Amino acid sequence: MKDRDIDDILKRVAEGARDVDPALLDHVTDSMRSSLRPVRPIPAPSILASAVALICVIVALAGAMLLKPYGIQKMNALEIGLIFPVLGILIWIASALCVSEVIPGSRRPVAPWSLSLSGCLALSVVFALLFSDYRTERFVSQGMTCLTAGLLHAIPVSVASVWVLSRGFALNSVAGGLAKGTLAGLAGVTMLELHCPNFEAPHVMVWHIAVLAVSGVVGGLMGWTVRAYRSQ
Amino acid sequence: MDSDVDLQSLMARYQQGDAEAAAALVHRLSPQLHRFFLVKVVSRRHADDLLQETWMRIHQVRHTYRAGQPVLPWLYAIARNIRVDHYRKAYRAERRELQMEAGYDIREAPPDRSSQTPNLEELLATLPESQREVIAMLKVSGMSLEEVARATRSSVGSVKQKAHRAYDKLRKGLASIGMAKARGGGPL
User: Is residue B82 pLDDT above 50, yes or no?
Assistant: First the structure.
């Protein structure tokens, strides 16, 4: 049996399927008519993504200015030229992903879990290439300070992105939460790269990247909680 | 393509508050949405409920449709969401009852054995959930690969792969139905 034969059979069985009850359609139409009023379509995805990305950058810059930008002052041109473009690309993809998660039927640039994972990997590779100091002085205490600061900067970004995208319709709240968490985590990492003068490779590779990972996981868990709540 | 442009214009009018456009969309798209739910849930009563719920959700989130974008991926993405929500709620609340009702509904509407072609639900029931969904969208609703990929939030390659695997299974299934009917002397 060829594909064309199966196509024909499927076409015939689809045409032969029972019709919808006209009374049901009338009932649906009447329900919609009773609350029908003009609505303003959601802004273009590029505008929403730009707004979300801008929030992310503003929070990271404001945080770094507040805590003093010791990190970027200590960096050489190569470090600046490699770290920040990578963060910029990741922020743009994460912003586009957050927007696509709230517009049904839109193209998804990448799966949220895949972005979170590839973001961590890309930053690990960049940090491994740039930083060669493998000492681990006050590894945990300094690391916890950076992790806390990064996550504290992720909070306003996640709140603001939820607000900006509140007119959308999240089809999958777990995926949406993971995407927003990843974006917020990237704001935290950007702030740390601008601020943190500790260039020990283990510190940067573990604690700075942990901000991205933890924020993504927290976002996904919050999405899962929302879904569980709605399912009840 | 013309059909989609027509749907896009109806959606734009619906967003502007045109009741006739809303009614036209409901009457035009409901049959294929209903078939989509039928191949997924089997029970006609549940398909009716899901169809109604889908239109109510579409009405609530109609502002999320962007003018110029294809209508079907947007519509089916919402329909899938309703179906998944329905299963999740049903699974948590009344797992046993749902199974009994589904069994009852199948008996209530038995497949027409005397027809020349197999029943749609019966034919697609042999496929795994994800393949059944892809076939329903591609062949029953007449969507393109790109549209199915958008609605299911996957890649075109993944949709092609699922469709290919589904066709392999359908080919085997139809061959066995053909052999069984040939042995029984019934019509193919």
Answer: yes
pLDDT for B103 equals: 52
Chain B residues touching residue A169 (CB < 8 angstroms): 61, 64, 78
Kindly state whether A4 is in contact with chain B, defined as any CB-CB distance less than 8 angstroms.
Answer: no
* Tens-digit pLDDT profile for residues B166-183: 888 888 777 776 655 555
Tell whether B46 and B16 lie within a shared domain: yes
Please tell me whether residues B88 and B118 are part of one structural domain.
no
Q: Which of B123, B149, B130, B126 is nearest to B84 (CA)?
A: B130
Which domain range does residue B9 map to? 1-110
Residues B103 and B176 in one domain: no
Q: Which two three-digit tokens encode residue B67?
A: 């003018």
Residues of chain A with pLDDT under 70: 1, 13-18, 232
Contacts across the A-B interface (CB distance below 8 Å): 148
Alpha helices by DSSP H, listed for B128-155, are 129-135, 145-152
Report CB contact under 8 Å: A104, B123: no
Q: What's the pLDDT score for residue A60? A: 97
Q: Which of B30, B75, B119 sits opposite A25 (nearest CB)?
A: B30
Q: How many CB atoms lie within 10 A of CB B17?
A: 12
User: Domain with B27 in it: what CATH number?
Assistant: 1.10.1740.10
Question: What is the pLDDT of chain B when averaged over all its residues?
Answer: 78
Q: Let me know whether B99 and B119 are in one domain.
A: no
Which residues are CB-contacts of B68 (< 8 A; sequence separation ≥ 6)? B8
